[in-house]
């Protein structure tokens, strides 16, 4: 059963986004400034649209934190949409008197949730789908993820990411904590400066052509405790849980772990990690081709996964569509968007991975307080060193 869970609510251009994070143990230091820093990271990156300069996200902590520490109650977070005032009554809770200034949206955009959502809920106005399916919701995920990162920090774990591909340009995978500063200084969050410049050139080319680009982000969790997860049920395996949350992020179309798809073309002798044992430190591995997870459980090595993001579906040179109701062939509509959001999606991926890892650790070690959680994790680490 999930111990750390969250729900989000709100629309892309509504008053704001609300998130409720339930199950966070008491005694965790929470600083709104730290959450704001994660929100700023999400808004950064080469290829982002004009909205990022409008919003300048910041969080209001509405509950679950007192005098800088969690109380054990649900943590309530609110991120205002500063652009909401520009939308008049388009998203008003009460029906406007007379004729609404908002024209109904009746042309679904290819690659979006527009058509499926309209058919699912029997809508004549696709605006309802656009507003909730928007990647704007990921700001709430990042706010919750900032708290989860802080909790993982108590266990000695740090979650980081870097871009390893944008469009046709690729960079080397693998990074260490020493690379974090270099990655954050890159406009495309790539630790390879030469590849980063080529990525920016590719983004510029896509912008000129009215097109968009996707890419690949690698996410790593350093220092995550061993023995988290299980092999007894498929949906409780650590990889299953991580894959589910990664694929919950808009535009993510694939995920792999360790060698990933590369393992399919290699012999077993080049895929599996030989086991070692040293007095005082216990069991280990000679390599980390599995990406820190073996048999559904964490090994204590760095967790490594990669996620593939498709190109953003909203194009300045729109694809063909059909007007709902009349079925008349038309060009798709353009809703303000980015050219490339791969650098930013890394921060969202860090958030959902941190939330899943914190949830799994709480399930494994328990504890109503942070002190109880960390003590249980440390006791397990000591026990397995002695075996």
Structural topology:
Elements: E1 5-9, E2 16-22, H1 32-43, H2 51-55, E3 59-63, E4 65-66, E5 69-70, E6 75-80, H3 114-121, H4 127-133, H5 138-154, E7 158-166, E8 169-170, H6 180-185, H7 193-208, E9 215-222, H8 238-247, E10 252-257, E11 275-278, E12 282-285, E13 293-294, E14 297-298, E15 303-309, E16 320-322, E17 329-331, H9 342-365, H10 370-385
Antiparallel strand pairs: 1-2, 2-6, 3-6, 4-5, 7-8, 7-9, 9-15, 10-15, 11-12, 13-14, 16-17
Helix pairs in contact: 1-5, 1-9, 5-9, 8-9
CATH class identity: Alpha Beta
Task: Describe the strand arrangement of the main beta sheet, using strand numbers.
Answer: 8-7-9-15-10
- Distance between the amino and carboxyl termini: 29 Å
Low-confidence stretches: none
Description:
- This protein has 387 residues and is α+β, with helices and mostly antiparallel strands.
- It has one domain: Chorismate synthase, AroC fold (4-Layer Sandwich).
- The protein has ten helices and 17 strands.
- It is globular.
- The model has no long low-confidence stretch (mean pLDDT 93).
What features would you highlight for this structure?
globular; four-stranded antiparallel β-sheet; 10 helices; 387 residues; five-stranded antiparallel β-sheet; 20% strand; single chain; Chorismate synthase, AroC fold
């Amino acid at each position: 059963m999930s111990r750390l869970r969250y729900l989000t609510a709100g629309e892309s251009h509504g008053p704001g986004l609300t998130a409720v994070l339930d199950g966070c143990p008491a005694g965790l230091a929470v600083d709104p400034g730290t959450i704001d820093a994660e929100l700023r990271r999400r808004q950064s990156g080469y290829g982002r649209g004009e909205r990022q300069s409008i919003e300048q996200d910041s969080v209001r902590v509405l509950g679950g934190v007192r005098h800088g520490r969690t109380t054990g109650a649900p943590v309530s977070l609110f991120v205002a949409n500063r652009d909401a005032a520009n939308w008049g009554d388009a998203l008003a809770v009460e029906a406007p008197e007379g004729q609404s200034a908002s024209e109904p949206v009746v042309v679904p955009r290819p690659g979006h949730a527009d058509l499926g959502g309209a058919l699912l809920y029997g809508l004549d106005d696709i605006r309802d789908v656009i507003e909730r399916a928007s990647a704007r919701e990921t700001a709430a995920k990042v706010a919750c993820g900032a708290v989860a990162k802080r909790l993982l920090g108590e266990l000695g774990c740090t979650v980081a990411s870097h871009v390893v591909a944008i469009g046709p340009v690729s960079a080397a995978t693998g990074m260490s904590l020493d690379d974090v500063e270099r990655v954050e200084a890159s406009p495309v969050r790539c630790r390879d400066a030469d590849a980063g410049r080529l990525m920016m050139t590719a983004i510029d080319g896509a912008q000129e052509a009215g097109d968009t680009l996707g890419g690949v982000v690698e996410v790593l969790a350093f220092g995550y405790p061993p023995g988290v997860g299980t092999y007894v049920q498929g949906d409780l395996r650590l990889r299953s849980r991580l894959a589910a949350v990664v694929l919950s992020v808009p535009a993510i179309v694939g995920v792999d772990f360790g060698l990933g798809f590369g393992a399919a073309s290699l012999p077993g002798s080049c895929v599996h990690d030989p086991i070692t044992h040293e007095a005082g430190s216990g069991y280990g591995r000679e390599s980390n081709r599995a990406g820190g997870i073996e048999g559904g459980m964490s090994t204590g090595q760095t967790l490594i996964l990669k996620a593939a993001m498709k190109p953003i579906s909203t194009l300045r040179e729109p694809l063909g569509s059909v007007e709902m109701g009349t079925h008349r062939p038309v060009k798709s509509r353009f809703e303000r968007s980015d050219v490339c959001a791969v650098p930013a999606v890394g921060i969202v991926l860090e958030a959902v991975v941190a939330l899943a890892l914190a949830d799994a650790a709480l399930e494994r070690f328990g504890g109503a307080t942070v002190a109880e959680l960390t003590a249980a994790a440390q006791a397990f680490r000591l026990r397995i060193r002695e075996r």
